[in-house]
Design goal:
The chain is α+β, with helices and mostly antiparallel strands. It is about 20% helix and about 20% strand. It starts with 15 loop residues before the first strand and ends with a helix.
Length: about 750
């Protein structure tokens, strides 16, 4: 979908080459003509008492001319589309004044293995819905002037955008900002006009750059324009360096998780526990033992790992933790839980627990001590963030012994969830001890970490080190709703995060009969998170169940196929495979805010009258999809190239490629047969001419019934995927033949005859 951009004011004098943003209105013929400089504001942080000493000694912007640039509308721009035209409109001039200050610190070695500086770029610009700011530049870390490889920025607040990029130290780097509409390299974009910004990196750990968007045209012979390319060329000549190696940003996950299918259980709901814990005097009820009745069900479904939502002692829904070292008395105790872990492990099922470490409940021992004694006397005053006045924070607490109460920071204004001060060393060590205890003493296999995106990535670095030290094979999954996941997920932080943006696109594109939404979400994911393996889901304890979300029940197969076959770790939510329903706000429990509608007790593991009418059909379908996922390497480690994706509003085709196997998935969400038949190009890099793809989802051999073709042959570099019935799914695989080992034929070695001796004769 392209935005409605007014280009009516364009004239021949404002037409520009597509290959690079232009400053003068002439057609550009080389990359060097594009590179120019502009001034901004630079501040280097984390350094001490060193003045500017030119390019090598400090951070500086080299242009001093007034900054008037032109906004440039670009319909499409990529390496393969040079020679097209773009048009501009003149904006009011904006003058930019330099503001530079520098300090110096210890060397920092980034993920590339060489000295790097973390540069945080910040700029303010209004954007339309569906657009976002990117930074682009000459250096490979900034995309080497290719908009497809430009670096997306994060929206911070208002009109401010920001991103932190690791750049090599002692480099002279040109850059610019561009507004992109969507994620298609051929889509509309608006380049910041005029001279480029130019930054000299120094030996600082961090540099903060605060720029202003400028919007006027510059002549190509302006001194600031020509000086930029000249300065870069001279610096490169005087300080030659080998080609920069862009670091691999792939975040590895434990081997056991690569082909795993996760299954989320909200235990207080799953086992039908009361929503209110009446406190220390309440008896322990061993509801966790009921999991034994469901283990056969889970194993037959193909579940590899169970992720339990909060199990720790709490007051209501589990996220208001009272004791991190005890199982909630409404569910059982530690001895019972240890038994459950052993039962799961005996069936090859891993166990992941929910860790709520951003906040506690008011019954947590530290907060109780704070409430009883007050901030001035409690040794746990620094465990929380407190204030003296009601307006300081949203939470308020009366002190048991004393005249004055105190306010405290709480999660999203919920007074029952006081926020922990994770900057306090004692709090960090308390949380780290919790992590060690459940990994070592209880034998769990990982953590799902609540609101991980609201906690500093540096905390998760320490948390990862603690977990790796005692359980190197453990998995850390962060709840990621907002922000750029790359800040929290990486080889020294969390292994993965919850993929909320893709979750919405999977079901919404079906409801709206608009697979362009799904394609856009996947393009965004490929650009932002190509090195990450994210946790995909179509339902959880916080969102509407998929049976309540889909407008056409026939699309359950489609959304489930996307969950299983797109890259990522699939996670089922308990009961979705049986058609359980529920939406936020539909519940009636006052302690759950209406969310108990998605957390109702699990249905019996064996069919009875309580099962919905669609339960058996959906269960069988889910089993088939899980089995295909787990038995085909293309859906475990296979990559997906977005350039090979094909879609219309109601048909969606994608390819997964592993070394040993290639797979093609076709979804038809239309209520009618597709004519002409859908087709997809199969490059020889995927499969050779004449290669046969087998349909492992339909036909008698696949257990799908019907009379659809069992195989499809690559013809003239194409797969023709018809017939294509209404609301159908096809899953085709091609197993790459193993190379035949050549056996060298050698002549038989004849034994050497030795003439007998006199002694041997005797």
């Amino acid at each position: 979908r392209t935005p409605n951009i007014d280009i009516s004011r364009s004239t021949p004098s404002t037409m520009m080459s597509l290959s690079r943003p232009h400053v003068s209105g002439q057609e550009l013929t080389s990359r060097a003509q594009h590179r120019s400089t502009s001034i901004g504001q630079v501040k280097a942080i984390g350094t001490k008492n060193r003045s500017l000493r030119g390019i090598a000694g400090g951070a500086a912007l080299l242009s001093s001319a007034p900054s008037f640039a032109s906004e440039t509308f670009i319909k499409s721009r990529s390496k393969s589309s040079r020679g097209k035209t773009i048009s501009t409109r003149v904006m009011e001039p904006v003058a930019v004044e330099p503001d530079v200050s520098v300090e110096v610190s210890e060397p920092y070695t980034g993920s590339s293995g060489e000295p790097m500086t973390k540069v945080t770029f910040s700029i303010e610009r209004e954007t339309e819905f569906g657009s976002h700011l990117n930074i682009i530049g000459a250096h490979p870390c900034l995309g080497a002037w290719d908009i497809a490889d430009s670096v997306p920025m994060d929206w911070v607040e208002g009109v401010r955008w920001e991103v932190t990029v690791e750049l090599p130290q002692l480099e002279l780097i040109e850059y610019k900002y561009v507004v992109r509409y969507g994620w298609d390299p051929e889509g509309y974009s608006i380049w910041q006009g005029g001279p480029n910004y130019m930054l000299a990196t120094n030996q600082s750990h961090e540099i903060a750059v605060r720029d202003k968007w400028v919007s006027e045209d510059w002549p190509s012979d302006h001194p600031a324009v020509t000086a930029a390319s000249a300065a870069v060329a001279i610096y490169a000549q005087e300080h030659p360096k080998p080609p920069f190696r862009v670091p691999d940003k792939t975040s590895l996950i434990p081997k056991w998780a690569e082909d795993s299918v996760f299954y989320q259980i909200f235990p207080l709901g799953f086992f039908g526990a009361p929503s209110l814990n009446i406190g220390d005097e309440a008896p322990m009820v061993p509801r966790l033992a009921l999991i034994a009745k469901h283990l056969d069900f889970l194993q037959e479904l193909g579940v590899s790992a169970v992720y339990f939502s909060p199990l720790f002692e709490s007051d209501t829904h589990g996220y208001d933790t009272a004791d991190y070292f005890e199982i909630d008395r409404r569910l059982g105790d530690k001895a019972l839980f240890r038994k459950v872990v052993k039962q799961c492990h005996a069936r090859g099922i891993r166990v992941v627990l929910d860790g709520v470490f951003n906040h506690t409940g008011r019954r947590h021992f530290a907060f109780r001590d704070l409430q009883e004694k007050g901030p001035d006397k409690s040794e746990y005053a620094n465990w929380y963030i407190v204030g003296a006045r009601t307006e300081d924070y949203e939470g308020w607490c009366d002190v048991t012994y004393g005249e004055h109460g105190f306010s405290y920071d709480c999660w999203e204004g919920h007074a029952m969830l006081p926020r922990l001060n994770l900057a306090e060393p004692a709090v960090r060590e308390h949380i780290f001890e919790v992590a060690r205890y459940w990994l070592v003493e209880m034998g769990i296999d990982g953590w799902r970490l609540d609101v991980a995106h609201e906690i500093s990535p540096d905390f998760w670095r320490e948390f990862r080190a603690v977990c790796d030290a005692v359980a190197p094979d453990s998995l850390l999954v962060g709840e990621m709703i907002h922000g750029n996941y790359n800040a929290w997920v990486g080889n020294d932080r969390l292994h993965t995060g919850t993929n909320y943006q893709l979750s919405k696109a999977m079901w919404s594109s079906l409801n709206d009969h608009n697979f362009d939404e799904l394609a856009t979400a996947l393009l965004r994911e490929e650009k932002l998170y190509s090195g990450l393996t994210l946790l995909n889901f179509i339902g959880n304890h916080d969102v509407a169940r998929i049976a309540s979300t889909l407008q056409d029940p026939a699309h359950f197969t489609h959304v489930s196929a996307l969950l299983m076959f797109l890259p990522g770790l699939p996670c089922l939510y308990y009961g979705d495979e049986l058609g359980m329903e529920g939406r936020p706000g539909e519940g009636d429990d006052p302690h759950c805010g209406g969310d108990d509608a998605m957390r109702r007790p699990m249905l019996p593991p064996v069919a009875d009258e309580s099962w919905p009418a669609v339960a058996e059909e959906r269960l069988a379908m889910t089993k088939r999809l899980v089995q295909i996922k787990k038995s085909n390497v293309a859906f475990q480690t296979g990559v997906m190239d977005m350039k090979k994706l094909s879609h219309t509003d109601e048909q969606f085709i994608f390819i997964r490629e592993a070394k040993e196997q290639k797979a093609v998935v076709l979804l038809n969400s239309a209520n009618h047969d597709v004519e002409p038949w859908p087709e997809v190009a199969i490059p020889t890099s995927v499969a050779p001419e004449g290669a046969v793809f087998k349909d492992i989802f339909n036909g008698p051999a696949a257990g799908g019934g019907g009379d659809l073709p069992a195989s499809f042959t690559v013809t003239n570099g194409m797969l023709y995927l018809g017939p294509c019935p209404a609301n159908s799914v096809k899953v085709l695989v091609y197993d790459v033949p193993k190379p035949v080992k050549k056996v060298l034929q050698t002549a038989a070695v004849q034994p050497k005859l030795v003439p007998p001796t006199q002694a041997s004769i005797v």
